[in-house]
């Protein structure tokens, strides 16, 4: 089976789907690998590194001859047009948001496999690219926020006076939020965090953060580990809590996502106005609509004296780690689904059923189907 990796074309994308180490592993398992020349450059992997690992390096048209193509971002219509009929591909897809891409893949009977659909179960942890990338993003969000602040994080007692620690407020204690707490704590800030899932309280506290409980939090539904939309009553109570807390915060990091839905607006314009001049908001949910009403995708803007950071691709700012971890995730999934002779799909098995979106000209993924049909 020939595995191909093409260069990412999305703006500001520095990652690549396979690292030289991942190529070595695939070669050991008797797969053939071809990488587009220059595909690893932005992650500091040279063509020679891939050649040394045992891959071929070729032109885009040579790579599109592969049986299975790997990418970080969703394949574009132009790329799908160049793919072989009945071939296969793996990337982040967010398939329920891209019906036209699904149609284009189906029209060529391409088996498409989505990294964002890997079930959040222990057995699939090594394939979980959402977590590997969110973890890096949480770290980078704190550093970006710190850079935009006109003050330091830790308590510092000096001959010239005492500097009080910065206050960091975090919304959402998923993978990104927990890493943001850990990073802000390591830098010496006072950290508070709220989440709709009450079970996150213990995780926040174990990292040295203070958990902010919204009264009436019972009844928040969790499905497959993901939070469902909360009630209007909960949101109102949560808004009151945020109104009280946000006035004192130096840095706010928002990570609240709801699977398959637009992100909830947690920080309104009125709340931004109430914040201290010079404070910063890093909106990590900006790609799915944003948690702050004023943040702008891929822009850093100042509104009402508050700096709003809307960087939508934080993992790409750490391409070496992000590509290495993504390559481990995608290779582990690939080895679960294929052998050197081709794909070997057991559509009753939990991980396979979770990740395969289109197969043999059919939209086979239940969640995507329920949204698109
Ligand atoms: P996510 O990115 O989908 O959401 C981020 C956080 O935002 C979540 O903690 C969510 O509860 C929170 N949130 C949603 N709406 C909110 C609101 N209105 N206000 C405040 N917070 C809000 O989450 P994730 O990091 O991808 O993790 C999703 C789940 O999967 C978690 O339960 C996590 O523990 C679990 N998980 C399991 C595994 C595994 O077992 N292999 C791996 C990774 C994650």
Automatic annotation (TrEMBL):
It is an enzyme of class 7 (translocase). Residues 146-310 form the Alanine dehydrogenase/pyridine nucleotide transhydrogenase NAD(H)-binding domain. It catalyses: NAD(+) + NADPH + H(+)(in) = NADH + NADP(+) + H(+)(out). Its EC number is 7.1.1.1. It comes from the Bacteria. InterPro entries: Ala_DH/PNT_CS2 (IPR008143), AlaDH/PNT_N (IPR007886), AlaDH/PNT_NAD(H)-bd (IPR007698), NAD(P)-bd_dom_sf (IPR036291). Residues 4-137 form the Alanine dehydrogenase/pyridine nucleotide transhydrogenase N-terminal domain. Keywords: NAD, NADP, Nucleotide-binding, Translocase. Belongs to the AlaDH/PNT family. The transhydrogenation between NADH and NADP is coupled to respiration and ATP hydrolysis and functions as a proton pump across the membrane. This is proton-translocating NAD(P)(+) transhydrogenase.
């Amino acid at each position: 089976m020939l595995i191909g990796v093409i260069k990412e074309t999305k703006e500001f994308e520095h990652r690549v789907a396979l690292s030289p180490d991942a190529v070595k592993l695939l070669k050991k398992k008797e797969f053939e690998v071809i990488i587009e020349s220059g595909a690893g450059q932005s992650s500091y992997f040279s063509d020679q590194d891939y050649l040394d690992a045992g891959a071929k390096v070729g032109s885009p048209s040579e790579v599109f001859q592969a049986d299975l193509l790997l990418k970080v971002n969703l394949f574009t219509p132009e790329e799908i047009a160049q793919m072989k009929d009945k071939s296969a591909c793996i990337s982040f897809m967010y398939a329920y948001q891209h019906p036209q891409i699904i149609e284009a893949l189906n029209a060529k009977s391409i088996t498409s496999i989505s990294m964002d659909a890997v079930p959040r179960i222990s057995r699939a942890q090594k394939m979980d690219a959402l977590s590997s990338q969110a973890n890096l993003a949480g770290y980078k969000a704190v550093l970006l926020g710190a850079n935009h602040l006109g003050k330091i994080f830790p308590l510092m007692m000096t001959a010239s006076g005492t500097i009080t620690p910065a206050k960091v407020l975090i919304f959402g204690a998923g993978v990104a939020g927990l890493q943001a707490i850990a990073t802000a704590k390591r830098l010496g800030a006072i950290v508070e965090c709220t989440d709709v899932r009450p079970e996150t309280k213990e995780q926040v506290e174990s990292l040295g953060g203070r958990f902010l409980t919204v009264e009436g939090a019972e009844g928040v539904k969790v499905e497959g580990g993901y939070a469902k939309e909360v009630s209007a009553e909960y949101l109102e109570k949560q808004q009151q809590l945020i109104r009280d807390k946000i006035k004192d915060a130096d840095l706010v990091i928002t990570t609240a996502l709801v699977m398959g839905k637009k992100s909830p607006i947690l920080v309104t314009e009125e709340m931004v106005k109430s914040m201290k001049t010079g404070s910063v908001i890093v909106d990590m949910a900006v790609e799915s609509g944003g948690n702050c009403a004023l943040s702008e995708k891929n822009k850093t803007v100042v509104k009402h004296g508050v700096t709003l950071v809307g960087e939508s691709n934080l993992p790409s700012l750490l391409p070496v780690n992000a590509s290495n971890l993504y390559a481990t995730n995608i290779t582990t999934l690939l080895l679960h689904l294929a052998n050197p002779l081709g794909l070997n799909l057991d559509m009753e098995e939990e991980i396979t059923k979770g990740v395969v979106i289109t197969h043999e000209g059919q939209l086979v993924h239940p969640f995507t189907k329920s949204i698109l049909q």
